[in-house]
Specification:
Blueprint: H1 21-35, H2 51-58, H3 62-73, H4 77-95, H5 100-106, H6 112-123, H7 127-136
Helix pairs in contact: 1-3, 2-3, 4-7, 5-6
């Protein structure tokens, strides 16, 4: 009896060379993200807030950007964006005298409620409580 052996090829995790297009896209994304910060003027609001905004600016498809960033950093594009907006919001609450609605607008939120929900989800307190906790310490 003749048996047919099936070849099972193990999944090979693709290494990303340091000079690859993927590395360049990742670096360009991170540079573009950081170029929007710090926010020092209420007239210069955050323009790029989503993966699709960044993909459009970088002239790549949003799925390609997401796969590339996640393959290199092991974190989704949206997490980088969210974490950076959160860091900037905490910095503004701590170091500026802007009210919460001004900070929300500067960070590109169309409604203060959206900013409050975003902040509370990440920090388990609303922006006003966070600012107050800074003065208590």
């Amino acid at each position: 009896m003749i048996q047919t052996a099936t070849k099972i090829q193990p999944k090979i995790k693709a290494e990303v060379p340091s000079n690859s297009a993927a590395t360049r896209i990742n670096a360009d994304f991170l540079e573009l993200l950081e170029s929007q910060f710090p926010i020092t003027d209420l007239r210069n609001t955050l323009k790029l807030r989503s993966a699709s905004d960044f993909a459009e600016k970088l002239s790549v498809h949003v799925n390609h950007l997401n796969r590339t960033v996640k393959a290199i950093n092991h974190k989704p594009t949206s997490v980088f964006i969210r974490d950076r907006i959160l860091a900037e919001s905490k910095r503004l609450l701590e170091q500026s005298n802007w009210n919460v609605s001004e900070i929300a607008y500067a960070l590109g939120f169309t409604e203060v409620t959206h900013f409050n929900n975003f902040f509370k989800k990440a920090m388990n307190m609303n922006p006003s409580q966070f600012r107050q906790s800074l003065t208590e310490n």
